[in-house]
Design brief:
Elements lengths: L1 H30 L9 H11 L6 E4 L6 E3 L4 E4 L1 H4 L4 H19 L2 H30 L2 H38 L4 H37 L1
Parallel strand pairs: 1-3
Antiparallel strand pairs: 2-3
Helix pairs in contact: 1-7, 2-4, 4-6, 4-7, 5-6, 6-7
């Protein structure tokens, strides 16, 4: 394990910190730039839903850092910074989450696939490391293999998540362009969404590296 695992930890840590630092920089920068239409994130979300004729989606005010679409309740939750603010960051965040609502309403295939994988991924993400440790401690190759398979399911979920997130951002940008958001503000929104996408890419990359390392150790 030794040096190889230490190198893996360092590489994944650098990737994660770089992605998080980049997204924090962009979010903070455009949180201080007010959208010219003066609309809050919640208002933009409702307007985008109306534009696409999507009904029955509730826009909720969540806690700090809570920005997500929940297909179970068919609702979009926005953090206070996105719900109440009139910044470019708030606009981009709100429209991105409504992009997920659009996917759900229109039966976007990758979102259906991701939804089907969620139960398995949730179980595997919590159990694989314990199974791996038990397998190593008891020197049971079968448990180690099972742990790797479970971790592979987590990696698969992260890979399927990528097109879902990218598509939601494309829908957000298309809407903002359609309603006449100035080019400079569209660019700011794109910078925010691209930065957020990097966090998903970083997570997928680090997970793939971890999986490859586990597969290599299992062969040895």
């Amino acid at each position: 394990m030794g040096n190889g695992y230490l190198a893996l930890v360092i590489v994944t840590l650098v990737i994660g910190l770089a992605a998080q630092g980049y997204v924090n920089h962009k979010l903070k920068r455009y949180s201080n730039v007010r959208a010219s239409n003066g609309m809050t994130g919640a208002q933009m979300a409702r307007q985008m839903l109306a534009y696409y004729g999507i009904q029955g989606v509730e826009i909720r005010r969540g806690g700090p850092g809570q920005d997500f679409f929940d297909p179970r309740s068919n609702s979009v939750t926005l953090s206070p910074d996105a719900f109440d603010a009139t910044s470019i960051t708030a606009t981009a965040t709100a429209c991105h989450e409504v992009g997920h609502a659009c996917q759900h309403a229109m039966g976007y295939a990758p979102m259906k696939v991701r939804g089907a994988i969620v139960p398995v991924a949730n179980m595997a993400s919590n159990a694989w490391i314990f199974l791996l440790m038990i397998g190593i401690f008891m020197n049971m190759a079968g448990l180690i293999t099972a742990a790797i398979i479970m971790y592979a399911a987590v990696v698969l979920f992260q890979l399927v998540t990528l097109p879902v997130e990218f598509n939601a951002s494309r829908r957000a940008m298309a809407y903002m362009g359609t309603v006449g958001l100035p080019a400079a503000e569209q660019k700011g929104a794109f910078d925010v969404l691209r930065a957020c996408a990097f966090t998903y890419l970083a997570a997928a990359l680090t997970s793939i590296l971890q999986l490859l390392w586990l597969l290599g150790q299992n062969r040895d």
